[in-house]
Design goal:
Layout (H helix, E strand, L loop, with lengths): L29 E5 L2 E2 L3 E9 L2 E4 L9 E4 L4 E9 L6 H4 L14 E7 L9 E15 L9 E8 L1 E6 L16 H7 L25
Antiparallel strand pairs: 1-2, 1-7, 3-6, 4-5, 6-9, 7-8, 8-9, 8-10
């Protein structure tokens, strides 16, 4: 009999003394920032993390015998923002330019998730070394409000709880791998270049499983 999870255990929707609560995360608890300063008037902010995986087949077998990533993960960001307070979208991200070709150095974006609480419980995601790949806008006679959109390519992404620890509750996680945790909080760019990939599995304390 499987252990009940968050969606099937009704007690998760009540406090310890039986009062109602909500477990739904809301964008009202999200702050987008650059260099520690929040970016206002954002309508939509999307982060996509992708990794190409290829199946391995063999002659004489109908079915894949294995699968593995073929290259490093890739990270893209898109943002839609109302043009507000005299700032175009690159300026709103504290860049000293308005056009794509003007960028000379990459920058980091911080995403603060305050759904669990303030300073001690804030989940901080850092999108590293962003390059702007597209800026777009339209002037429309049928809708006077001007919106800008921007796409970015990032080198890496990592998250931590208050910039210090792993993002998850250790008690709710089954399999724990030290390399995966270190990559998640930014100690490594990825987890596949650690030694012993095909024969050793380590838990969070480094013990062989």
């Amino acid at each position: 009999m499987p252990v009940r999870g968050y969606l099937s255990n009704n007690t998760n929707y009540e406090t310890a003394d039986g009062r109602s609560r909500t477990g739904t995360h809301l964008s009202t608890n999200i702050i987008i920032a650059v260099e520690g300063r929040s970016v206002g008037a954002i309508k939509r902010f999307t982060v996509d993390e992708t990794r190409a995986v290829q199946g391995v087949s063999e002659v004489g077998a109908d079915g894949q015998i294995d699968s593995a990533p073929t290259k490093s993960a890739e990270f893209t960001v898109t943002c839609d923002r109302t043009r507000f307070d005299g700032r175009r979208i690159a300026e709103a991200f504290y860049r000293g330019f308005v056009h794509v070709h003007s960028q000379r150095v990459p920058f980091d974006i911080q995403v603060y998730d305050l759904v669990k609480g303030g300073t001690d419980q804030q989940l901080i995601t850092v999108v590293k070394n962003c390059w702007i790949t597209k800026i777009g806008y339209t002037y429309d006679a049928e809708n006077f409000i001007i919106s800008d959109n921007m796409s970015l390519h990032a080198e890496a992404i990592h998250s931590s709880l208050n910039s210090q620890t792993a993002v998850f509750d250790m008690g709710t996680v089954g399999y724990k791998n030290a390399f995966e945790i270190d990559a998640d909080i930014g100690k490594y760019r990825g987890a596949l270049d650690a030694a012993g990939l095909i024969r050793v599995f380590d838990d969070v304390d480094g013990n062989t499983l």
